[in-house]
Amino acid sequence: MKKVAIIGAGITGLSTAYYLKDHDANIDIYEQTDRVGGKVNTYRQDGYTLELGPESYLSRKTIMTELAVDIGMESELVRNEVGLSFIYVNNKLSPLPKGTMLGVPTELWPFLKTDIVSPVGKLRAGLDLFKPVLKIDKDITAGDFFRRRLGDEVLENLIEPLLSGVYGTDIDKLSLMSTFPNFKQQEEQHGGLIKGMIKSKKSAPKKTSKQGMFFQFKNGLQSFIDRLNDAVIENGAHVHLNHTLESVKKLDEGYELTINGETNIYDEVIITTPHFSYKKWFTDAKLDYFKTMPATSVATVVFGFNEGDVVNEKEGTGFVVSRNQDTAITACTWTSKKWPHSTPDGKVVLRAYVGRPGDNIVKEKSEEDLAKAAMHDLRQIMTIKKEPEFTIVTPMVDSMPNYHLGHKDHVTELESYMEQEYPGLYLIGASHYAVGLPDCVKLAKLTAEKIMN
User: Fold this and answer.
1) Same domain, 382 and 353
2) How far apart are the C-alpha atoms of 232 and 31, rounded to whole Å?
3) Among 82, 84, 91, 88, which Cα is nearest to 158's?
4) Which pTM value belongs to this model?
5) Over residues 92-115, mean pLDDT
6) Which of 2, 43, 351, 416 is a plausible cystine mate for 50, CB 3.0–4.6 Å?
7) What residue numbers bound the domain in which 275 lies?
8) Which top-level enzyme class is recorded in the Swiss-Prot or TrEMBL entry (predicted)?
9) How much is the CA Rg of the chain, to the nearest whole Å?
């Protein structure tokens, strides 16, 4: 029987182990910390169920829902409440124009009415309808692409706040082909970005009712992780907490791993840890891009209030912040509105995000200072009458890998190199393709299938 080691017990590691359930192997999962789940971190106390790390996942990425059904959690799924989303720009909250897709307008009238973009900016965006397609066969930055098609103002006031929230990367360095190649495809197929997005929207299945785009679980994302962990153990895998991988040595057959000072030999190894950990185990120059790949540090700051202590005139679920605003926060979710199940009656929860690409606020400031900075910004945007009943700050250092120009090619080259030089050893996770939780699950499943085949 083969021996398989999985390094990291986050969602990628646990999902890989789950999908290997039919593989004839002894599976050991090694986790450096004292808990499973990685970035997933749910606070459950006094009637609150609050996410301190990832908040939810996109329901259209069905692989995670399929996994939830597989492990018996279908009845635990909860959709978010629908409501307006806002952008904080020009020192005020303005609703995201109806019909925009990641900031790209697909309906004329709502875009013309918005105050997020000036009349000049709207005219500039309209030039997209007449601009020729840029024929290129190489990667470009998302900033270059959207500036050329829609202009600076739409990019900075509409698109950048939304995309930066997803990828945590400077849009002028963000690889378009590694993140949103569909935008380039729409431009090429239809002769313009707006034309392409309008046609894409028309051809999409019509929604019969308004429903939330995101899924969570009644008892939080950690409940999903815990159930997945139980399923993995039930299938015969062994989960070892507080176990640190110290070295990897390639043998004629298999790999020698030194973990907590002890050496074991494995036929196959799957490493799911962040990219910066590679430098501890590999000296190969082919891995240099990943060893030095920048990552953005972010923090979530959760505030709990009594209902009357926060006055919010806007009927919505939250807002993102333009990078032209002088704020520490980049976004805020009105959690008690978006996820009513998460908060007791009579309470209000705000969840702010701190940390931008290129700044060091999360690394340099204390948790107390991060909370003060977030509260200062929120008081400029909303009416907050009293101090919060509780505050929870969760710094996540270097947690968002930056997919810079050419990232996709680097991933392809690395996969080819590992296949040739390290057969049976796989490097997977958020640093390669997987930004959202379902992407991590998808990558785990693909890797498991590759191993079994």
Assistant:
1) yes
2) 14
3) 88
4) 0.94
5) 91
6) 43
7) 2-40+221-293+404-452
8) oxidoreductase
9) 23
